[in-house]
Amino acid sequence: RSSYSCCYFVLPCCFFDFHGKYSRRQSKKTQYREYLDFVAQVGFVCGFHVEEDCLRIPSTKRVSFVGKSRTYPAAERALIDEQITQFINSRRTCAVATCDRRVGFNHEHHCGGLCKEAGSEPPEDETETAGTIWMPGFRPREKVERVRNCASLPRDFVDEVVLNVANLLLNAAPQKSCSDKQGGNMNTWNQGESLSLREVAEHLDKEILKKLKSEYGGLQTLLKNNHQVFEVLNGRVHIRDWRKEKPPSKTRPEVKRRLSAEAFKTRLCWFFIHHPDGCSLPSEACPYAHGTEELR
């Protein structure tokens, strides 16, 4: 309904209608196929030539629909908009009557969701065409959607949180003796203790938590984004021990193995700079730079 020149692409996934969960009506089809038919039907009702395509992606739900052209001239837009409004109203009636198996449907003119019980005229507050009120309570998303995955947080703020959490884990336990798998010697390298996300949050400043709560994923997402320093498993935060990371596969082609051995280090090693015992790996084995002179 955005405009006559609007085109669309949709990849149906979760089974939802306009007003809630999609309710099945045909037992002869799989739930997925029936829902795909419903999404295609929405395109037909909106006056699109609907094309179906199967994406090459690693997912069980990979059937998509594309609407590139209209089935009606621009002059008939107001008439089609009335049809769309009636269709939305009929789906609402269907949603209210989901428990009533006796509700019938009219499948004429590709409008297979029109309930026979629905009135032919839409309510007065929904007779406006596109550009005014589409349906009560509807609010389109902003033109520029704000990215909220902790990636847009200021670098200084992220560094402060990482350092606070790391110190919290390091100070939670005395130093332990660990075996250096590369040299075979016994070295003392403090890996700290693991704490639950809740325990970590309890030790952080309220202002920091408030800022993190405004981001999708919050504290957990920020810690996972800092893969070099932390490992988050089953709701518990650990300091990552790079000696335990699996070495590169020996079955890879020679060229890739050679490139891996001569890795371009583009980031400084956090442990080399901040950890009281330094990095647990020697410089040649660490994927991060031990000093600015190693940066490429």
Overall mean pLDDT stands at 79
User: Any idea how many domains?
Assistant: 2
Shape category: elongated
**What is the strand tally?**
10
Catalytic activity: uridine(44) in tRNA(Ser) + S-adenosyl-L-methionine = 2'-O-methyluridine(44) in tRNA(Ser) + S-adenosyl-L-homocysteine + H(+)
Organism: Agelaius phoeniceus
Family: Belongs to the TRM44 family.
Protein name: tRNA (uracil-O(2)-)-methyltransferase
Q: What order do the helices and strands come in, and which of them pair?
A:
Blueprint: E1 8-10, H1 31-45, E2 48-54, E3 63-70, H2 77-96, E4 105-106, E5 114-115, H3 155-170, E6 177-179, E7 186-188, E8 195-196, H4 197-202, H5 206-213, H6 218-225, E9 230-233, E10 236-239, H7 254-261, H8 270-274
Antiparallel strand pairs: 1-3, 2-3, 4-5, 6-7, 8-10, 9-10
Task: Write up what this structure looks like.
It is a single chain. Helices cover 29% and strands 13% of the residues. The chain is of the alpha+beta class and 296 residues long. It is elongated, with a radius of gyration of 29 Å. It contains eight helices and ten strands. The protein has two domains: 8-96, no CATH class; 155-171 and 192-294, no CATH class. Strands 1-3-2 form a three-stranded antiparallel beta sheet, with helices on one face. The protein has a three-stranded antiparallel beta sheet with strand order 8-10-9. The protein has a two-stranded antiparallel sheet with strand order 4-5. A zinc finger (C3H1-type) spans 263-293. This is tRNA (uracil-O(2)-)-methyltransferase. One of its GO terms (molecular function) is zinc ion binding. Its EC number is 2.1.1.211. Adenosyl-L-methionine (AdoMet)-dependent tRNA (uracil-O(2)-)-methyltransferase.
